[in-house]
Amino acid sequence: MNTRFLIHTILLAAVSGGASATDLGAVYQRALVNDPVIREAEANRRAARESKPQAIAALLPQLNGFGRYNDIDTELASTDITPPNPPLPFDRNSDGWSKTWQLSLRQSVFSWQN
Question: For a 10 Å CB count at each end of the chain, is N or C smaller?
Fold first, then answer.
């Protein structure tokens, strides 16, 4: 009977040798990663924490800037137009540029939200 017990013990040790021992911390970490309820609760917590900075940002000054540069080059000759009574021949050239800059600063003093 001792040989039979020894054979069963050896077989049991060989079969269970592939099983890995996991501690409670590893199981808990896997649950945090894979459990959808825990992940949903974490996402809701992060969204609630982000609402405060967004509310404060709406009260801060808003600064916007805009700029434009136009280069104008126009040539017009008397042959380009045909009025009923043709005037003397002429040529007209215009050259120029324009710059537009705009800067606006907006500060909310009062915000009414329902």
Answer: C
Predicted TM-score of the model (pTM): 0.35
Q: How many CB atoms lie within 10 A of CB 78?
A: 14
Q: What is the DSSP string of 4-70?
A: HHHHHHHHHHHHHTTSPP--HHHHHHHHHHH-HHHHHHHHHHHHHHHHHHHHHHHHS-EEEEEEEEE
Of the chain, the end-to-end C-alpha distance in Å amounts to: 83
Per domain, the residue ranges of the chain are 23-105
Spatial neighbors of 108 by CB under 8 A, at least 6 apart, are: 58, 59
DSSP 76: E
Q: What percent of the chain has a predicted confidence (pLDDT) above 90?
A: 18
